[in-house]
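Supplementary Text 2. Reproducibility record for the structural model of the 191-residue chain.

All settings were left at their defaults, and a single model was retained for analysis rather than an ensemble. We include the record here because the model underlies the residue-level annotations in Supplementary Table 4.
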Amino acid sequence: MKTGIYSGSFNPLHNGHIALADHLVENNIVDELWLVVSPQNPLKREAELLDDHLRFEMAEIAFKDRQKIKISDVEFALPKPNYTIDTLNFLQQKYPENQFVLLIGADNAAVFDKWKNYSEILKNYSVMVYPRLNYPHNSEKYPQMQFISAPLLDVSSTEIRKRISQGLPCEDFLPRGVLNFIKGNNLFVDN
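Retained model, structure tokens:
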């Protein structure tokens, strides 16, 4: 079974994440998708990162009715900081029957050589790259990567957090359940 690994902080999970995940399974690019909620990306600052379990719960709310998309907290129990190669190797050992495919954005592909053991990832796993605004496809640098067509929505978690903290509407960017969860728990509000 071809299992897509879509990792991220999902802080918060938004309609762009959902559109990409749905596209991947509905178009049989992967047989199933595991959305891996990451505690901390070693290449990003920790500022404004919600508690792991709150972000996990938002992901579960957003994908509750989708059979081929599973929410994973696998990285919560792995040593910190979390490195993709360690997660992939752990999953491959635990689920040897699965063919794991790493899904990354073109922004991450641009800095892939900064990832821990990136050459090992390319050697042992398929890597699919989805488009991101202002990041052109660069298939020459990593010919092993497969660049895929996918919806390109101009929405970011950073902008959503900013809008929430300013009291601006976010109904167009977040699923209703996630927005209700954020409001009900008073998340991303400057105190």
